[in-house]
Design goal:
It contains two helices and three strands, in the order αβββα. The protein is of the alpha+beta class and about 90 residues long. This is DRBM domain-containing protein.
Length: about 90
Amino acid sequence: MAYQTWQDKLEGACREFNIAVPVFQIVSDRRGGRTAWSSTVTIYGTTHSARFWYDGKNLNNAREDAAEVALGWLSTTAGSSPASSPATSRSGW
């Protein structure tokens, strides 16, 4: 089985639930003489933040972190049954 990134898994889940692809945004925070970087991802109208801040050379790690958070939310929110997926049941969203 081929290695899949969290970003790939999140995109696949969005396709499965028939919702728009994730939109990632890189954010920065000036900390003294350095800049810390993180990421957010928006899916189904909800924005999820990465849990950690990263050095600039590790921006992909920030996107992976945000994708993992969002996938966990989507899995919990959508449930395991197709009847409760965002594509077919939008009450309470």
